[in-house]
Design a protein that fits this description.
Elements (H helix, E strand, L loop, with lengths): L1 E4 L9 H15 L14 H15 L11 E4 L1 H4 L4 H20 L12 H46 L17 E6 L12 H4 L7 H7 L6 H20 L3 E3 L10 E2 L4 E2 L7 H4 E4 L2 E4 L15 H9 L3 E4 L19 H9 L17 E4 L2 E4 L7 H11 L4 E4 L14 E5 L2 E4 L8 H6 L3 E3 L24 E4 L2 E5 L3 H9 L3 E5 L2 H4 L9 E6 L9
Parallel strand pairs: 3-4, 8-9, 11-12, 14-15, 17-18
Antiparallel strand pairs: 1-2, 3-19, 5-6, 7-8, 10-11, 13-14, 16-17
Helix pairs in contact: 1-2, 1-4, 1-5, 4-5
Length: 526
């Protein structure tokens, strides 16, 4: 709040000059002043009010009671002042600064002002006149600029709403013809520190690996093979007519610290985990692992480019990832324990604050399906539901899964009315799809060898496929059984090696984020 003199009426800029004179006279002579060369003598009551005003201004903490000259004006109220009002306020502040310098002792019998005082007063008058003019010109130009800016903003709103027809971001489902995609990077990938949330999402046989290598790079030779596989995947996508974008390379081994935790990073390998495209909007997920807190940095330059070209861009609320977000006593002893906990709706992440990975959502036009998992809580799903309503409907589905994390290796929608459903993790709400006339396809058992390292996932990455359109699918070159399954469905399999890249926790769907698919928003459940 600002304590100022209430200024009324439509006075001109010249009045500020007299106002300065009265301030000088009041500061010099007080309530008993007689005459002034600047204006007619002031009445005792006027001088009394002026002295009261100056006293109030000198002691801003004092009460305002008993003075109609003062008021409490909010910033919003000040914004409605005109140029003259601001000139008065500024002029008064200038005179107040000069008050002590201009004070000259006066004789009760002598003239009101000595010649020296009069020259000083004339200088203040000159200063007030120029200050008043400057303030008026400044505010007039500012008001004109504001009006122009408002008109410009209105024009811009009309120009950008709706989004441009050539918006670079547009995807409503998992199967429309793919035109542009982000493919992740394996370079500099690091083993995450072995924290409670990592322990809850990994298999016991790999815990010694995390305890030994947490915070350091994944094995160099393995990373080299994974990088080569992903480069080949990018080349094949380009040959299929798809534009490929890549995240920025980052050194994920660098340690960072927030007020709530410290960690090293993970990787920029799985854009599906952190990004989801819904229509013309890119949504950045907040994530749930501390090692993934800053993962968005790898994609920021790409997303900014899409934003500049017309896409919508939303970042979900970032969790603090403090200890309250995790059940520090989450009991993990066996697969049976995990089944029991999941059936009871207990996970390592609590409901302390919203968190989710984008890979726990899968799209089918107006309907988006999500699961409560070790990395996605109900608050995170609710945030997505509210954010996307009313154009999209977010449904929660669940599975018989001892370690739910990311939906696309459990339930992968590959076409209109066509879904792959993991036989080891049956969906509890599968009747919803059957009643809607959907075809439920059970993929064959994966053939990946038991001795192949899968530090962050299961063998069911075989069904984590990427649809290029309804009739083309990118699939593991070594997974012959699932290739035959797609052939029976009339879908052509594009075979690509990805085994070493699988070890980092993702298949083709995880390693990519479809940015643009040629299609429109439709409902497949009405």
């Amino acid at each position: 709040m600002l304590r100022v003199r209430c200024l009324r009426g439509g006075s001109r800029g010249a009045e500020a000059v007299h106002y300065i004179g009265s301030r000088v006279r009041a500061s010099r002579l007080g309530a008993g002043a007689a005459c002034s060369p600047l204006r007619s003598p002031a009445s005792p009551s006027q001088n009394c009010r002026t002295k009261t005003l100056l006293t109030r201004l000198e002691s801003p903490a004092s009460s305002l009671a008993g003075s109609r000259e003062l008021g409490c004006v909010s910033r919003k109220g000040c914004m409605r002042w005109g140029p003259t009002q601001w000139a008065r306020l500024l002029s008064e502040s200038v005179v107040w600064r000069w008050r002590s310098a201009l004070e000259v002792p006066s004789s009760p019998a002598g003239p009101c002002f000595a010649p020296t005082e009069f020259r000083a007063q004339r200088e203040v008058v000159w200063l007030g006149r120029n200050l008043t003019g400057w303030v008026q010109r400044t505010f007039q130009s500012t008001q004109a600029a504001a009006a122009s800016s408002q008109n410009s903003c209105a024009a811009d709103d009309k120009a950008t709403d709706p989004l441009p027809k050539d918006c670079p971001v547009s995807s409503y489902n998992e199967w429309d013809p793919l035109e542009e995609v982000i493919v992740g990077r394996a370079e500099n990938a690091c083993v995450p520190p072995f924290t409670v949330e990592v322990k809850a999402n990994t298999y016991e046989k790999y815990w010694p690996f995390y305890q030994k290598h947490g915070g350091h790079y994944f094995p160099k030779d393995h990373l080299k093979k994974a990088v080569a596989e992903i480069e080949e995947m990018c080349n094949i996508l380009k040959m299929e007519g798809v534009t490929v974008r890549r995240p920025d390379p980052i050194d994920w081994s660098l340690k960072y610290k927030t007020p709530d935790f410290e960690s090293t990073g993970l990787y920029g390998a799985m854009p599906r985990d952190i990004l989801i495209v819904v229509g013309n909007e890119i949504i950045e997920a907040p994530m749930a692992w501390r090692s993934r807190f800053f993962e968005y940095r790898a994609y920021r330059s790409i997303i900014k480019d899409y934003f500049h070209r017309g896409a919508k861009w939303t970042t979900a609320p970032k969790p603090t990832m403090g200890d309250e977000l995790y059940d520090q006593d989450y009991p993990i002893h066996s697969v049976e324990d995990r089944h029991k906990l999941a059936a009871q709706g207990k996970f390592v992440t609590t409901e302390f604050e919203p968190c989710f990975d984008a890979a726990d959502f899968i799209r089918a036009g107006r309907d988006i399906f999500a699961q409560r998992s070790q990395v996605t809580n109900y608050l995170g799903i609710e945030w997505m539901r509210r954010h996307l309503a009313p154009d999209y409907r977010v449904h929660i589905i669940s599975f018989k899964d001892p370690n739910p994390m990311h939906i696309d290796a459990t339930f992968n929608i590959i076409g209109p009315g066509l879904v792959l459903s993991n036989p080891d993790r049956p969906c509890h709400q599968i009747d919803l799809f059957k009643k809607a006339g959907w075809t439920i396809v059970t993929p064959p058992i994966p053939v990946i060898p038991d001795d192949h390292p899968l530090w962050m996932s299961s063998k069911w990455l075989s069904m984590n496929v990427l649809m290029l359109d309804e009739k083309r699918v990118m699939v593991d070159a070594n997974e012959v059984p699932i290739q035959k399954m797609f052939e029976k469905l009339g879908i052509s399999a594009i075979k690509v090696n990805i085994r070493n890249a699988n070890s980092l926790g993702g298949g083709f769907h995880c390693w990519t984020c479809d940015i643009r698919r040629r299609g429109t928003l439709q409902s497949y459940f009405d």
